[in-house]
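Why do we care about 3D structure at all? Because function follows from shape, and shape follows, mostly, from sequence. That is the central idea of this module. The next example makes it concrete: a single protein chain, its amino acid sequence, and then its structure expressed as tokens.
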Amino acid sequence: MKTLIVGSGVIGVLYGWALHQAGVEVAHFVRVGQSDRFPNGVTLDLLDERKGHPAKAIHPYPIRCVESVSPADGYELILVPTNAQQVASALAALAPVSGDATFLLLSGNWEGTAAIDAILPRERYLLGYPDGGGTVRDGVYWTNLGPEVHLGLHTGHSAERLARVRAVFARAGLRADMQANILHWLWIHNAGVIGFAAGFARYRDIQAYLDDKALVYQSIRATKELYNLCARRGVALKDYPEISYINFPIGLVALLLCWNFRRNESMQRFTAHAATAGSLRETRYHYAGMLRTARELGAETPNLAALGAYLQ
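And the structure:
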């Protein structure tokens, strides 16, 4: 399944490398003048959680970059692992020149699909989310690759295209974590991230953030507000038992959170991008959308609102 990946960010490089290793033909779509940026390829310092793969290793990736696309290129799959606010511009640039390629959008989503639907018919795109992350340190991609990729159908999506996408990821040792309602799952995921990301923005240092007990508690309360906001939007919270932790005593939630960030190397790599300018822009974008939704639905979110001071 000939694959084009938008950009050379961490997620795009991570999945580009994994698919390339599995024998898939991969190219990365980059800005004009950037195709020669990696004459010697890139290097991944990888924590690999896939079954049967070395847990830790340094991997070279002979990344191939292109600055233009045409239907004659024959791409069958286009991965869009961008920040949410960049998705529409990427689709607008590629939709007219992509033939019948399937677009897989691997980004956060809180706003729904109206902006996407204005560019692509629903049978041409799928929604998903990566299981991995990291950052670039001294030119090296310091990353973790989880064993799955989060996928699912939304109204009007093509089950046949989804099956083909699942197969290409399976070829790379990545199983599909299938969600009955992928859009609701994305909302729940975003709700579980933004309260903590907004609190983290106060210090932009994980140790300082975790040491501020009052701020951690406020982030937990903001996250609970966001899950309740999801329920107001029609999400059945009972369908997501993984979020039940938020109802534990707040001290226990804080303890679990601190342990995860301080001891879990996979989590450390997954969230290492949080202090970057791009990550903070995306946090502000989602945060603004969540406050707007709260106003529209008449929901009280005092803890979430207070965290906005750290995103200025």
